[in-house]
Design a protein that fits this description.
alpha/beta; L-arginine/glycine Amidinotransferase, Chain A; three-stranded mixed beta sheet; 19 helices; 15 strands; 36% helix; binds N~2~-(3-carboxypropanoyl)-L-arginine
Length: 446
């Protein structure tokens, strides 16, 4: 049965803002306190989704989260009405308050790790929401992420959902941002490639010294166990700690893979030769392409700034492999030159399409951060909630919804306005009806 790889992009939430919350993520830190434009951010995201759908791709949508997160603030001792909780927290603990306002669930590459049914022992597609323990503002996402995934992939004959891993740095899990899958055809068993930043239980092993390693080996191995993967089809690799210290906070900032291609920077891995040997061994065919970008052509700094590797590597319906890149790649001379050469050379990548996702890029989120890949066979495609699948009708509904509800400008002080929570809840309530999600948000469950 033929299968495709679908992309489920995160809708940008109504509180999209720049709070400088992600230590180790250069863009997030350098744009801290800049004014954001939630409406433009959401429309940029929708435009990319619509363009991929128009290219004949199966494009899905994942809903944003309820923010400010007054439930987390209550757990931290702020009390009273919702408005009082917001006012007290924003005055008494502004940093904690900002962490509870982020629209970071838009980066759905961090929503979960997904293993296609062809790889899993029980023949179902497995989802494990990422616990995102390394950053407080992201650690409050997994519960609702799980609700949203269950509302979209609800058919238990096809889809299996796990609870996120224990919420501790030892099991720090950042989801698909550190997970890639190789295969000849999407419907066949593939090789699942897990990249981690450090070993949690062995301090003698190499680890970054400046910025945090957000994913542990132990978390990756736990996800592989939960999903029932066959060990001979799994490859683990450690990220180069030096590049984490240069701002490569997820592997998808320095490498991307699809089918029989791994496109990566020379400095991405701690032991590149071992990575190649292990992938070749597990893939067990001679048509695998390792496309290594040398430092002398593109520095790590240029890769981080342009997000050359935070690109989507996809197969169009005519089987051409193309890159979906942010405009920043075209604006960076070294990267633009490299990409022109790449598509002219003899390799599976045929074309580069550029997209404006600047509102997300300024928080360190490129095209690949904005999407969660889900391989679906024909029966599974039919089992997906149809109101989460991009088409002309859904695009019109969602752009109308964004234009009606989203603000043009948001600053840190605007976030403390209790009216924003009322506005956001009304916005999300309407979205759950448009997407037929049921009651996925805490405010709908009370
Ligand atoms: O987790 N930025 C996100 C960016 C996530 C990008 N995802 C992938 N590479 N897959 C993060 O660091 C910044 C929010 C702020 O600073 O306001 C933020 O959360």
């Amino acid at each position: 049965m033929s299968a495709i790889e679908a992309n489920f992009d995160g809708l940008v939430g109504p509180t999209h803002n720049y709070a400088g919350l992600s230590y180790g993520n250069v863009a997030s830190k350098s744009n801290a306190k800049a004014l954001s434009n939630p409406k433009q951010a959401a429309l940029q995201g929708l435009e990319k989704m619509k363009a991929l759908s128009d290219m004949g791709m199966f494009q899905g949508v994942l809903a944003p989260q309820e923010r400010p997160d007054v439930y987390s603030l209550r757990r931290l001792g702020f009390s009273g009405t919702d408005a009082e909780v917001i006012t007290k927290a924003s005055k008494q603990a502004p940093e904690i308050f900002l962490n509870c306002c982020s629209a970071s669930s838009m980066w759905t590459a961090n929503a979960a790790t997904v293993s296609p049914s062809a790889d899993c022992a029980d023949g179902k597609t497995h989802f494990t929401p990422a616990n995102l323990t390394n950053k407080f503002h992201r650690s409050i996402e997994p519960q609702v992420t799980g609700n949203i995934l269950k509302a979209i992939f609800s058919d238990t004959d096809h889809f299996a959902h796990h609870e996120h891993l224990p919420e501790n740095d030892h099991f720090g899990d950042e989801g698909a941002a550190n997970h890639t899958r190789f295969c000849r055809h999407y419907d066949e068993t593939g090789v699942e490639f897990f990249v981690f930043g450090k070993y949690a239980f062995d301090g003698s092993k190499p680890a970054p010294t400046k910025f945090p390693a957000r994913q542990t080996y132990e978390a990756s191995a736990a996800v592989a166990r939960l999903h029932g993967l066959n060990e001979s089809n799994v490859v683990y690799a450690q990220q180069n700690p030096d590049v984490i210290d240069q701002g490569v906070f997820h592997n998808d900032v320095i490498a991307v893979g699809n089918k029989n291609v791994l496109f990566y920077h020379q400095q991405a891995f701690l032991n590149t030769q071992q990575v190649k040997t292990d992938i070749n061994h597990a893939y067990a065919d001679n048509d695998f392409h390792f496309i290594e970008v040398p430092t002398e052509l593109v520095s790590v700094n240029d890769a981080v700034k342009s997000y050359l590797f935070n690109t989507q590597l996809i197969n169009l319906p005519n089987s051409d492999m193309v890159i979906i890149a942010p405009l920043e790649c075209q604006e960076n001379k070294a990267v633009d030159t490299y990409l022109k050469q790449l598509v002219a050379n003899d390799n599976p990548i045929k074309h580069v399409h550029f997209f404006d996702v600047k509102q997300s890029m300024q928080n360190g989120g490129g095209p690949a951060c904005l999407r969660l890949r889900v391989v679906l066979n024909e029966m599974q495609q039919r089992a997906v909630n149809p109101n989460a699948v991009m088409n002309d009708v859904l695009y019109t509904k969602l752009t109308t919804w964004v234009n009606k509800h989203y603000r043009d400008q948001l600053s840190a002080t605007d976030l403390a306005d209790p009216q924003l929570l009322i506005e956001s809840r009304a916005t999300l309530d309407e979205l759950t009806q448009i997407m037929d999600l049921g009651s996925v948000y805490p405010f709908q469950q009370i």
